[in-house]
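Record minuted for completeness.

…
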Amino acid sequence: MSLLHVINHPMVQHKLTIMRDKSTGSKDFRELLNEISLLMGYEVTRDIPLEDVDIETPICKMTAKEVSGRKLAIVPILRAGLGMVEGLHTLVPVAKVGHIGLYRNEETHEPVEYYCKLPEDIQDRLVIVTDPMLATGGSACDAITMLKAKGCRNIRLMCLVSVPEGIKKVQNEHPDVDIYTAAVDDGLNENAYIVPGLGDAGDRIFGTK
C-alpha cells in the first residue's frame, strides 16, 4: 500500500490558510502556491540518494555530498498542476517537465484526456505528478496510468488539498505511488468539490472566474 505523507509544517499550514480565504486574489494565490510547492518539495525529495564527492573549499580539501545522479521529472496535470511547477523547479532546476492535459466532465465528474507531452527518457526518471486538488482521484489515477504506460515505475503524487475518497482511489489503483499533501479535508459535496477546500484551483490561479 502506498504511503500518505501529510506535510503539516507551520509555514505550509499558514500559507494554505491564506489560500483558502475567498478574499485572496489570483496574484497572491499563485505566489503562495509557488511557495508551498517549494516547501513541500523538500519532503517529496527527502530520500533522494546522495554520493560522496571530493571538492576543495577556500580552506581545504574535503569529501562532501551531492545528489547521486537520479533524474527527476515534474509532470503537472493541466491546468492547475502548472501552479506547482515553479516551486519544484526552483528546488530542482535540472528537472525536466512534462504535461498531461485532463479536464473534468461537469456532468459525470470523470476526467477526459486531451494532451500528453513527456520527456523522451521519462521512464528513467523519478516522476513527481502535481495537482493542487485530489478530489475524486480520477484525474490523478488516469495521469498515473498514462505514465505507467510510458514505462514509468517511480512515481510520486504531490497535491495541496486532498480528501479520503481521492486518497483511497489512488491507493487502491496505484498502491506503489506515495501521496504527499498539505491537508486532508472532510470530503466532497454534491458537485465533487472538496469541502472546505479552496474552490477551483485552476480558476483561482489564472483568474478565470
Notes: The first strand starts at residue 4 and ends at 6.
